[in-house]
Amino acid sequence: MTEGHPWSDWLEVGEADLDNDHHLQVRLLNSLVDALEEGRPWLATRLAAHLRDASRAHFESEEGRMRQTGDPERVEHQRQHDALLQDMAEVVEAVDEEDHAEAIAAAMDLRSSLAGHIGSSDRRLAELERALAHGPAVPST
Questions:
Q1: What whole-number distance in Å separates Cα of residue 102 and Cα of residue 39?
Q2: 134 lies in a domain?
Q3: What would the pLDDT profile of 59-117 be if each residue is shown by its tens digit?
């Protein structure tokens, strides 16, 4: 079995809804690789579809949050989501074609890309939301 992606504080963005979704995405990717390595393509098919669908919903939620905050980096963040969804489509296709080696490689690449996205763009979004929630600092007199 492939060693799963270790979760670390670096991947925690400090917002429960986002962190829960991110944990789910990484768990689904790890389980997908395990299913392929264990010769359970029917399970891999279900996991790949669940990952794609859960990620679409997660990204839509994030994009709504970006619009709500007036995030100045929203367009680039959405481009990253589009690229991740394209990578997920490639994983689904490889799983559907029963190209297990390609599916495992694509899933592992996706896991790395997703972790990078979480640790940078999603962290920045969570920090922006926290800053806006606390409002501008009022200087003391």
A1: 14
A2: no
A3: 999 999 999 999 999 999 999 999 999 999 999 999 999 999 999 999 999 999 999 99
Structure tokens at 25: 């995405």
- The pTM of the full predicted model, rounded to 2 decimals, is 0.88
**Rg of the Cα trace of the chain?**
17
Total structural domains in the chain? 1
Specify if 38 maps to a domain. yes
